[in-house]
Amino acid sequence: MDTCIIHIDMDAFYASVEQRDNPKLKGKPVIIGADPSGRGVVSTCSYEARKYGVHSAMPIRTAYKLCPTGMYLPVNMRKYKVVSDEIHEIFRRYTPLVEPISLDEAFLDVTHSRSLLGTEVEIALKLQKEVKEITNLTASIGLSYNKFLAKIASDLRKPMGFVHIHKDNFKEKIWPLSVSRIWGVGPKTRVYLEQLNIKTIGDIARLPDSVFEGWLGKAGKQLFLLAQGIDNRKVEPAHEQKSIGKEITFNEDITNSNQVKRCIAQMSEQIGSRMRKNNLKGKVLTVKIRYHDFTTVTRSFSFPDHMNNDKDIRDWAFSIFKKNWTGDPIRLIGISMSNITTDMMQQLTLFTDQKEDIICETMDKIREKYGFESINRGHLEGK
User: pLDDT tens-digit profile of 17-47?
Assistant: First the structure.
């Protein structure tokens, strides 16, 4: 029996939720993220905004230059989480084998659902229709016999698209596509491959696997297998914890920001190390500030992609703290990473930030051998 995997991806999720809840935003370019006068980035944007060249992870000031008439809204993570829970509940009506990837996308293994719900195509189309009817939001669906091809398929026809890649048409569907379509191949990796005259997935597939593995090691072997339509990863229902965090309660209330910064650095390293050890990444960073009178403030930031780099956690956490600290004495400081997913494509991220990768890997190895307190980031950064 062939495996049947669905990858479902909500279309421009955050922006679509805002347009659904506020009719005045429908048909207008909606950009979700930081204040356009600030230094943040675009979290996501509506399809109307994309026509101006705006895209996720773009500096918010750049987005404003491209689309000054856009509707700029802050991230409302609490609202999106509520809608996400509703959507994932719909997914579980079709199969218990649901692997959430983020708030707005998931893999579903519907192999054994066919005896009750019809063919895999009928299941996929019924799921897409039910999500629209219940939530008034659209989703794009990719259907295939493995996760890699299902993920590519869902991105080929947006919004409200449906693409079925099977064993008879996978070469026709994916070989002409850019290597950047492979999940985990970023801009730097793409440039490197193009220097080797490898521009499409088909270029990878037509090379002998030994040659490609010789160039890129294990990652090269993995890329070659994916280009051949081979991906043996199973859909793994999420049983892992929903967040990873640390808190520090001070013996005495403090007002020294440098002391808070040191605590944030320490907690960031602990969180990053723990995620890497368990092959996890998070997307939503939350900072908690509890004042001397027990008033508690929490603020969140959504990274463009899932990550587990403690330097980024540290820098963004302290930035959130500085922006929201009133100057009153602090009793407790805490940070956490949520929207956790497995780091499925870690070996393919060849050129994300090699310096940071080396620092994190070196620290993890030293701590594994000598204990967590044996080293901190300052030793390797020369601070």
Answer: 999 999 999 999 999 998 888 878 898 999 9
- Whether 356 is catalytic is no
Question: Of the residues 18, 48, 99, 105, which is catalytic?
Answer: 105
282: CATH: 3.30.1490.100
Residue 373: inside a domain, yes or no?
no
Same domain? For 192 and 301 the reply is no
Q: What is the CATH number of the domain that holds 180?
A: 1.10.150.20
State the total domains in the chain.
3
User: Do 123 and 50 reside in the same domain of the chain?
Assistant: yes
Same domain, 165 and 263: no
Q: Which three-class secondary structure string do you get for the chain?
A: CCCCEEEEEECCHHHHHHHHHCHHHCCCCEEEECCCCCCCEEEEECHHHHCCCCCCCCEHHHHHHHCCCCEEECCCHHHHHHHHHHHHHHHCCCCCCEEEEECCEEEEECHHHHHHHCCHHHHHHHHHHHHHHHHCCCEEEEEECCHHHHHHHHCCCCCCCEEECCCCCHHHHHCCCEHHHCCCCCHHHHHHHHHCCCCEHHHHHCCCHHHHHHHHHHHHHHHHHHHCCCCCCCCCCCCCCCEEEEEEEEEEEECCHHHHHHHHHHHHHHHHHHHHHCCEEEEEEEEEEEECCCCEEEEEEEEEEEECCHHHHHHHHHHHHHHHCCCCCEEEEEEEEECCEECCCHHHCCCCCHHHHHHHHHHHHHHHHHCHHHCCHHHHHCC
Do 215 and 323 lie in one domain? The reply is no
Q: For residue 351, tell me if it sits in a domain.
A: yes
Query: Structural domain of residue 70, as residue ranges?
Result: 1-174
User: Of 57-66, 170-179, 244-253, where does mean pLDDT reach its minimum?
Assistant: 244-253
Nearest Cα to 7, choosing from 97, 135, 130?
97
Phi, psi of 183 (to 5 degrees): -60, 120
Using one digit for the tens of pLDDT, what is the confidence trace for 140-166? Answer: 999 999 999 999 999 999 999 999 999
* Judgement on whether residues 185 and 257 belong to the same structural domain of the protein: no
* pLDDT value, residue 377: 59
